Amino acid sequence: MIQQTLTIIKPECVAKHHIGDILQRIEKADFKILAIRMVRLQSQEAQQFYLIHKDRPFYQELVQYMCSGKVVVMVLEKDNCVEAFRKFIGSTNPKDAAPGTIRKDFGTDIQNNCVHASDSPENAQKEIAFFFSAKEIILNQ
Ligand code: ADP
Ligand code: MG
């Protein structure tokens, strides 16, 4: 089933000029980029986006990190996209990520792990709506 997911290239990868490399890998793996934007998140926005993690010990640090520089937010489309993209990026901790995944190749540690990716189709729809209007997504198709 054709599905969409939300991904974010995190600040460290943007700062290290890896945007181009990551986009190339994503497109070569046949994920279609439906919408894309570079943003600097406000603290309140990052807090809201990661609200699901509010009780985890790394929440404040994660929010601070995601606001530390510009990020690139994207909507991707592919068959079984949510699961396929999670597999494509690799495990949360780059040390455990499979060879050839972008977290393995561009991530440094569990926080600086290259990208965010939605973890379910339901959350993907919520996360997409957090950043993009329906009009932006349709216009890019
Ligand atoms: P994923 O991004 O693989 O879905 P989680 O949803 O569990 O992983 O965590 C969200 C983000 O929080 C991770 O991508 C990472 O940046 C950060 N994070 C997760 N676990 C830790 C940890 N133990 N210490 C610091 N940061 C963490
Ligand atoms: Mg997650």
Ordered list of secondary-structure elements with their pairings:
Elements: E1 2-9, H1 11-15, H2 19-28, E2 32-39, H3 43-49, H4 59-66, E3 71-79, H5 81-89, H6 102-106, E4 115-117, H7 121-131, H8 134-139
Antiparallel strand pairs: 1-3, 1-4, 2-3
Output the keywords.
alpha+beta, Alpha-Beta Plaits, 141 residues, binds adenosine-5'-diphosphate, four-stranded antiparallel β-sheet, binds magnesium ion
Describe this structure in words.
With 141 residues, this protein is an alpha+beta fold. The protein has a single domain (2-139), classed as Nucleoside diphosphate kinase-like domain (Alpha-Beta Plaits). It contains 8 helices and 4 strands, in the order βααβααβααβαα. The chain has a 4-stranded antiparallel beta sheet with strand order 2-3-1-4. The longest helix has 11 residues, at 121-131. The protein is globular, with a radius of gyration of 14 Å. The two termini are 17 Å apart. The model has no long low-confidence stretch (mean pLDDT 96). The structure holds adenosine-5'-diphosphate and magnesium ion (MG).
Strand order in space, largest sheet: 2-3-1-4
The level of helicity is 40-55%
Number of helices: 8
CATH architecture: 2-Layer Sandwich
User: Spans of 5+ residues with little confidence (pLDDT < 50)?
Assistant: none
Biggest sheet character:
4 strands, antiparallel
